[in-house]
């Protein structure tokens, strides 16, 4: 069970967030107000995630500025993951606060982005292992959704690109010849040449940002492998 503490003064946002977590297993959501001191609050000790909703608050609001300072003093202690919700105009005034957080999102994207961003942070911090997914650093290959996410951004792959990446990631540091890859991904009845593999590998590397594209290594005169090691 992952404990999530939500600080918010917005009843509307609280209801939206409660609705998002209503059908999510494995989470316990606890609500708090800015007016309550945080630094000495022992309930933060076993929290995995802190969500701090600053949307709708004035930049002159002393309560939330003091609260952020207290929470910032918890650096290196639980909660391990910190996520801010802000209004777009607040971005200009919250430089220090954004540095304090692991990630932030705008309030108008709350219902669409909160859970994906939260899941990504939990995967990254090893607080939650994604079901049926392959994870290397900030790269998550979700085999259930047939989706590749890198640095919290979805990268669109073709079916063959996905299958080739999945095969290589499932067999880290194992070299596959082009014929091996053709047989496994395209099937034995494929009549195209082995250069098809090279074309797909080139496109795959172009889509994936560094350093992960460099983990798709060419073994000269043999084939390819996926190796996280430099």
Q: Layout of SSEs?
A:
Layout: E1 2-7, H1 11-21, E2 27-32, E3 49-53, H2 62-72, E4 81-86, H3 95-100, E5 103-106, H4 110-124, E6 133-136, E7 139-142, E8 147-150, E9 153-155, H5 159-170, E10 176-177, H6 178-186, H7 195-207, E11 216-219, E12 223-226
Parallel strand pairs: 1-2, 1-3, 3-4, 4-5
Antiparallel strand pairs: 6-7, 7-8, 8-9, 10-12, 11-12
Q: What is the count of structural domains?
A: 2
Strand line-up of the largest beta sheet: 2-1-3-4-5
The pLDDT mean sits at 80
Q: What separation lies between the terminal Cα atoms?
A: 35 Å
Number of helices: 7
Strand content: 15-25%
Silhouette: elongated
Class computed from helices, strands and strand pairing:
alpha/beta
Shape-level CATH architecture of the largest domain: 3-Layer(aba) Sandwich
What is the CATH third-level topology name of the largest domain?
Rossmann fold
CATH superfamily of the largest domain: Response regulator
Largest sheet: 5 strands, parallel
Q: Could you tell me the number of beta strands?
A: 12
Question: How are helices and strands ordered from N to C?
Answer: EHEEHEHEHEEEEHEHHEE
Helical content (DSSP H or I, runs of 4+): 25-40%
Rg, Å, rounded: 22 Å
């Amino acid at each position: 069970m992952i404990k999530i503490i939500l600080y918010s003064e917005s009843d509307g946002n609280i209801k939206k967030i409660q609705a998002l977590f209503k059908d999510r297993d494995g989470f316990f959501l606890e609500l708090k107000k800015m007016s309550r001191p945080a630094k000495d609050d022992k309930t933060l000790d076993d929290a995995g995630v802190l969500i701090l909703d600053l949307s709708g608050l004035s930049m002159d609001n002393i309560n939330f500025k003091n609260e952020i300072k207290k929470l910032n003093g918890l650096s290196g202690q639980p909660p391990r993951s910190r996520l801010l919700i802000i209004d777009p105009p607040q971005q200009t005034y919250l430089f220090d606060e954004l540095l304090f957080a692991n990630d932030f999102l705008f309030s108008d994207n709350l219902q669409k982005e909160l859970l994906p961003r939260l899941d990504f942070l939990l995967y990254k911090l090893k607080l939650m292992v994604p079901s049926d997914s392959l994870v290397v650093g900030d790269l998550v290959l979700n085999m259930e959704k047939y989706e590749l996410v890198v640095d919290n951004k979805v990268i669109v792959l073709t079916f063959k690109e996905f299958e080739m990446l999945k095969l290589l990631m499932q067999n880290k540091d194992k070299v596959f010849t082009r014929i091996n890859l053709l047989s496994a991904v395209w099937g034995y009845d494929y009549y195209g040449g082995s250069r098809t593999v090279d074309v797909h590998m080139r496109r795959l590397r172009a889509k994936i940002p560094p350093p992960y594209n460099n983990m798709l290594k060419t073994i000269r005169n043999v084939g390819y492998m996926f190796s996280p090691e430099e």
